[in-house]
Amino acid sequence: MTHSAAAPMIEVADLRKRYGEIDALKGISFSINKGEIVGFLGPNGAGKSTCLKIMTCFIPPTSGSVRIGGLDVQEHSRAVRKRFGYLPENAPLYSDMVAYDYLKFVGALRGVASRKLAQRIPAVAEQCGVTDVLGQVVGTLSKGYRQRLCLAQALIHDPEILVLDEPTVGLDPNQVVEIRSLIKDLGKERTVILSTHILPEVLVTCDRIVIIHRGKIVANGTPRELQEAQASNPPVVLRIGADGLASEAVAAVLTQQPWAGAVRMRPVGLAGELEFEIAGRGADDLRERVVALTTAQKWRLLEVRRELLDLEGIFRKSTQE
Ligand code: ADP
Ligand code: MG
């Protein structure tokens, strides 16, 4: 069988998975091109891990298929496994092992020859920023270093495809930033699929977002496409100085305007500031009207913007029935 360069790297067709009574995947189909960084976004229990485990041959599907470069993962699991690097959720680490030995152990499991490993370990360690801790016992490493070491083990056999299940869970904010930038870096030469329940994660890291909810795909596109599809008439956000104003009174004035749709007060977390979200009517851009009204009312204008990248809203809209 031959495949053109344009064929997708990964093709998932009508994938279903049942655990006893639980329908974890209810028919999922998507494809991923070579070199893409794709984010699997969904709340806990959506089916993300199940899908990733099937793709990486850890569990079989109930029905449906996954093809990697045209090969069915069930029929060619050995060949397929070589092409994947996998960071499972709650990645198991052998905590009594020295980091170097752990990488050597995983490398051997992955079938990398020991002579090759001697070059490969320092290279992945460098790439993942764990060179300085290679001599340490894994159990003594900080959570951030452990996560980097897990990434290093996923890369040890130089796979084309990297599958990362919730790679930033349990990290502190600085470590999250570091791991995200490392993932972006790794994505320059590889196809990457990562799962997360955290919205900003997919925004900063991914080329494409697949939103999964209750075992089904509810959206699939670039951040921009999702936004354009779902927010053709984005709300306008107005922020003004509180200056003794009652927010209910301001909201009432806004609501009375013929051009305004629903008005929502939003918590700001800053003393002395009020924020409102004003839905439009029709396709008009309301920003100029909002500014004119603010001036006429002598409110102290701090900010007016269209909620262009309302991924949170896209997510809410996509996942509510
Ligand atoms: P996510 O990774 O998006 O949080 P999962 O794929 O882990 O979702 O789980 C999807 C659904 O399948 C959940 O309802 C979960 O409880 C159930 N589930 C996952 N693994 C198992 C299992 N081994 N046995 C039974 N139910 C499972
Ligand atoms: Mg999961």
Structure, described:
This protein is of the alpha/beta class. Helix content is 35%, strand content 27%. It has two domains: 10-229, 3-Layer(aba) Sandwich (Rossmann fold); 231-320, Alpha-Beta Plaits, CATH 3.30.70. It has eleven helices and 14 strands. The strands form three sheets. The protein has a six-stranded mixed β-sheet, sandwiched between helices. Strands 2-1-4-5 form a four-stranded antiparallel β-sheet, with helices on one face. The chain has a four-stranded antiparallel β-sheet with strand order 12-13-11-14, with helices on one face. The longest helix has 15 residues, at 114-128. It is elongated and about 75 Å long. Bound molecules: adenosine-5'-diphosphate and magnesium ion. Adenosine-5'-diphosphate (ADP) binds at residues 19, 22, 24, 42, 44-50.
How does the SSE layout of this entry go?
Layout: E1 10-19, E2 22-32, E3 37-41, H1 48-55, E4 63-68, E5 71-72, H2 77-83, E6 84-87, H3 99-109, H4 114-128, H5 143-155, E7 161-165, H6 173-186, E8 191-196, H7 199-205, E9 208-213, E10 216-221, H8 223-230, E11 236-241, H9 247-256, E12 260-266, E13 273-280, H10 287-296, E14 301-306, H11 311-319
Helix pairs in contact: 3-4, 4-5
Bound molecules: adenosine-5'-diphosphate and magnesium ion.
Task: Report a brief summary of the structure.
The protein has helices at residues 48-55, 77-83, 99-109, 114-128, 143-155, 173-186, 199-205, 223-230, 247-256, 287-296, 311-319, and strands spanning 10-19, 22-32, 37-41, 63-68, 71-72, 84-87, 161-165, 191-196, 208-213, 216-221, 236-241, 260-266, 273-280, 301-306.
